[in-house]
């Protein structure tokens, strides 16, 4: 048995900055509402044709591999988390294998939305723990902007989400007291439709149905979110799963050096911070700059926190996520 650790981190966001004021020119919204309810000031949107979910993931991965100080041919396995894949199938994992020019290593796609990166870290951790793989590349990447309803009808969702990618190279750690100490994953499918994109899917409406109906009122191919219901569940599940991780390792909230919550809403992060009595130095948020980037939000935030020197060797780092599914999870890391 080994432990796993994060050996290299990288992120990539498209250059195109979209401010709240920019959005207020195309839909009935305003900077005050968005900042007050979510904390978001701006987000990045891919300019059509310039990037895809895969290409952003590849750029983040290249940085992570470089920082891990390994050769790309030492990657044993790819895990790719996204809700916005380039193709309906195959998933982006194999496209990363191709575009990075890796050996024919396995590639796994994860569909756990905002919890995708946490699920990915958990999978990589288990493969490394068992000794099956030594270096696993975990990517979270999202291109939301092209699939959102950018009219007043969709404003409850479209102002929140942004594009970007983050990646981590996870590798073997020989010291059992260091690296990933535990991961905790949960789901509650009873609430699957409360934050979802129903079509195109085999269950309800397929592409031919959508085209055949050509119904301008059809919103089934845009994401739907019951915001207040999701918010209420998020604060409870975030708290539970962080405590579960701490208790498993005989730790308490005072032991946390850095909490990286999934960047869903600044108000959710602030609620958690207050509940656990953490200072501003113990929680990292960057939703103000990037909005909610779903599977990419934790690796982007983790990379930025690390680049800013806010994570040092020996620190207790906690990752926590909640989102569509519902799914949620946490990762406890001794850096
Ligand atoms: O990452 C996955 C997990 N996601 C989350 O955890 C998100 C959780 N939910 C939230 O963060 C919040 O519920 C939102 C930020 C999405 C919404 O905030 P809210 O305080 O729950 O607002 P609401 O949806 O109840 O809407 C309040 C009002 C409504 O108007 P009326 O009915 O009161 O007249 C909306 O139509 O705000 C209106 N509204 C907007 N106004 C201006 C909704 N979106 C906008 C907008 N600009 N973009």
UniProtKB/TrEMBL annotation:
Pathway: Lipid metabolism; fatty acid biosynthesis
Domain annotation Beta-ketoacyl-[acyl-carrier-protein] synthase III N-terminal: ranges: 108-189
Coiled-coil residues: none
Gene Ontology terms, MF aspect: 3-oxoacyl-[acyl-carrier-protein] synthase activity; beta-ketoacyl-acyl-carrier-protein synthase III activity
Main location: cytoplasm
GO term, biological process aspect, one: fatty acid biosynthetic process
EC numbers, comma separated: 2.3.1.180
Domain of life: Bacteria
Active site: 114, 262, 292
NCBIfam families: fabH, PRK09352.1
Record remark: domains: The last Arg residue of the ACP-binding site is essential for the weak association between ACP/AcpP and FabH.
Function as written in the Swiss-Prot or TrEMBL entry: Catalyzes the condensation reaction of fatty acid synthesis by the addition to an acyl acceptor of two carbons from malonyl-ACP. Catalyzes the first condensation reaction which initiates fatty acid synthesis and may therefore play a role in governing the total rate of fatty acid production. Possesses both acetoacetyl-ACP synthase and acetyl transacylase activities. Its substrate specificity determines the biosynthesis of branched-chain and/or straight-chain of fatty acids.
Family according to the record: Belongs to the thiolase-like superfamily. FabH family.
Xref: PANTHER family: 3-OXOACYL-[ACYL-CARRIER-PROTEIN] SYNTHASE (PTHR43091), BETA-KETOACYL-[ACYL-CARRIER-PROTEIN] SYNTHASE III, CHLOROPLASTIC (PTHR43091:SF1)
Protein name (Swiss-Prot/TrEMBL): Beta-ketoacyl-[acyl-carrier-protein] synthase III
